[in-house]
């Protein structure tokens, strides 16, 4: 690992660098990659090489991650050549489509404000009965499947797709459609052409939906955006398609990956599950602890410093790329006692699983409630649920934007 | 600044707010989230029993929109 003097640092490739590649795979689905602890403990910035040979600094300490992500000089704009994209097609696609997660203020602010009203605490609380009905229906589907069934395809994917599609007002005859799209659009190995083709299929569907909602609006996000900001000329149709697309994909993929992982995390900690069964009022805290422990969106926070950003381990110079490791921060022993331990009664609950700064997850309130209801419904309806294969045989999604398991065979 | 006995001023800047809703989640007696997603103050000064919750909200606010100021009558 290259040691650098932060004062004279440059993230650009040098002639004889021995910079490690990034991202690195997890060795256990329930823990951050093993190298993160070393990055966090080093009293200097750590430099890595990402796709295409570009360099980026890693930020791994909790307070540094918060400082860096909240800094006005932290740019998310994928059009910047230094943007540290992790996937082959990621930068080109993000630079062209400009989803709001890869924008800076004031453009970002304008789009985000069109969406935040759809995900308020009050709105999400009102959705609880509907989410409960979706989970109850899908757990019966799981139980109707031959054993071992797949907790991803037969439950989590169906729950996450149904919930986000209903919220947006997107028809969903084919529950596997969005899973197929995100398996390409979120893949690090997919080229820009492959990602573009997968998204075009989605955008075709959304394009027809925009026309439909303009004529026959419903009580949903797409209808409100079409008849509000789009009709008033505050957003272009092209941008609206991108913003609906990222909301749908992000809302679907995160929950789909988090639900099976969190269920397994509880099953492998029976003492914690017993606490929840004895006192269901612990569930909201348990959800935050699971979000912290698993940190599935670990490396979504790709940035370029547009000003010098001073951190405890050195200064990221203006112009250099950095990646704020959410799993690194959430497992920082300076903030979380015994961070590897799952503790639903943990006192420290201010994790960064949803990021920090102006890009902190717009759907976090929905994500929390959806995860809570999906887990409670599953574990209450199927008390004998257990993994049907050894943990070491679970196929991890190593090369995707959001961490998860491809398949989780379960029995009961 | 706020003291353990309360009395500090709560400040919320809607121009900075990104509508994450964290403040209304951890200190619902002090902050609300309007239908447009942005922060709304329910009180002007930190209630004595809500000091920890308000400090938590200030700590969690991702955009720095929620802050504490001097007690009423102070320089703010």
Automatic annotation (TrEMBL), chain A:
Query: What keyword terms does UniProt attach to this protein?
Result: Heme, Iron, Metal-binding, Monooxygenase, Oxidoreductase
Q: Which Gene3D superfamilies match?
A: Cytochrome P450
Could you name the domain of life of the organism this protein comes from? Bacteria
The segment annotated Disordered runs over 1-35
What CDD domains does the annotation carry?
Answer: CYP105-like
Give the InterPro entries listed for this entry: Cyt_P450 (IPR001128), Cyt_P450_B (IPR002397), Cyt_P450_CS (IPR017972), Cyt_P450_sf (IPR036396)
Q: Could you say which protein family the record assigns here?
A: Belongs to the cytochrome P450 family.
Protein name in the entry: Cytochrome P450
According to its UniProt entry, this protein's organism is Cellulomonas phragmiteti
Q: Which classification does the entry list for the species?
A: Bacteria, Bacillati, Actinomycetota, Actinomycetes, Micrococcales
UniProtKB/TrEMBL annotation, chain B:
Q: Which domain of life is it from?
A: Bacteria
Database matches in Pfam families: Fer4_19 (PF06902)
Q: Does the keyword Electron transport apply?
A: yes
Q: Which cofactor does it need?
A: [3Fe-4S] cluster
UniProt key word Electron transport: yes
Q: Where does the record place the 4Fe-4S ferredoxin-type domain?
A: 8-36
Q: Which UniProt keywords apply?
A: 3Fe-4S, Electron transport, Iron, Iron-sulfur, Metal-binding, Transport
Job of this protein = Ferredoxins are iron-sulfur proteins that transfer electrons in a wide variety of metabolic reactions.
Concerning PANTHER family, the annotation shows:
FERREDOXIN (PTHR36923:SF3)
Mind telling me what this protein is named? Ferredoxin
Organism the protein comes from: Cellulomonas phragmiteti
């Amino acid at each position: 690992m290259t040691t650098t003097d932060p004062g004279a640092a440059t993230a650009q490739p040098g002639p004889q660098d021995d910079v490690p590649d990034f991202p690195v795979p997890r060795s256990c689905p329930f823990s951050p990659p093993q190298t993160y602890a070393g990055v966090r403990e080093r009293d200097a910035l750590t430099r890595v090489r990402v796709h295409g040979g570009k360099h980026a600094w890693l930020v791994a300490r909790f307070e540094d991650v918060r400082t860096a992500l909240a800094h006005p000089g932290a740019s998310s704009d994928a059009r910047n050549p230094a943007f540290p994209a992790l996937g082959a097609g990621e930068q080109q696609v993000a630079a062209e489509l400009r989803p709001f997660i890869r924008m800076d203020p004031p453009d970002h602010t304008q789009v985000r404000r069109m969406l935040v009203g759809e995900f308020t605490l009050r709105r999400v609380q009102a959705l609880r009965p509907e989410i409960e009905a979706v989970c109850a229906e899908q757990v019966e589907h799981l139980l109707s499947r031959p054993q071992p069934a797949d907790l991803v395809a037969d439950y989590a994917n169906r729950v996450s797709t149904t919930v986000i599609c209903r919220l947006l007002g997107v028809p969903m005859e084919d529950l596997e459609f969005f899973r197929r799209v995100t398996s390409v659009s979120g893949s690090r190995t997919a080229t820009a052409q492959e990602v573009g083709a997968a998204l075009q299929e989605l955008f075709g569907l959304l394009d027809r939906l925009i026309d439909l909602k303009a004529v026959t609006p419903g009580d949903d996000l797409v209808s409100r955006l079409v008849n509000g900001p789009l009709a008033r000329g505050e957003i272009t149709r092209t941008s609206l398609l991108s913003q609906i697309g990222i909301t749908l994909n992000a809302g679907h993929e995160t929950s789909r990956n988090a639900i099976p992982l969190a269920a397994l995390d509880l099953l492998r900690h029976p003492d914690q599950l017993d606490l929840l069964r004895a006192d269901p009022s612990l569930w909201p805290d348990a959800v935050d602890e699971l979000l912290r422990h698993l940190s599935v969106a670990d490396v979504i926070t790709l940035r370029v410093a547009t000003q010098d950003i001073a951190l405890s381990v050195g200064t990221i110079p203006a112009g250099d790329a950095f990646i704020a490791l959410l799993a690194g921060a959430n497992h920082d022993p300076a903030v979380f006692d015994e961070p590897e331990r799952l503790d639903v009664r943990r006192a420290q609950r201010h994790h960064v699983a949803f990021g920090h700064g102006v890009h902190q997850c717009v759907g976090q309130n929905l994500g929390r409630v959806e995860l809570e209801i999906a887990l409670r419904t599953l574990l209450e309806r199927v008390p004998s649920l257990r993994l049907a294969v050894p943990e070491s045989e679970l196929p991890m999604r190593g090369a995707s934007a959001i961490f998860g398991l491809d398949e989780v065979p379960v029995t009961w | 600044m706020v003291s353990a006995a309360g009395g500090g001023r709560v400040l919320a800047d809607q121009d900075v707010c990104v509508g994450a809703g964290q403040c209304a989640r951890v200190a619902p007696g002090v902050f609300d989230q309007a239908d447009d997603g942005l922060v709304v103050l329910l009180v002007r000064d930190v209630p004595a029993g809500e000091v920890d919750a308000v400090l938590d909200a200030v700590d969690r606010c991702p955009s720095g929109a929620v802050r504490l100021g001097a007690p009423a009558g102070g320089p703010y």
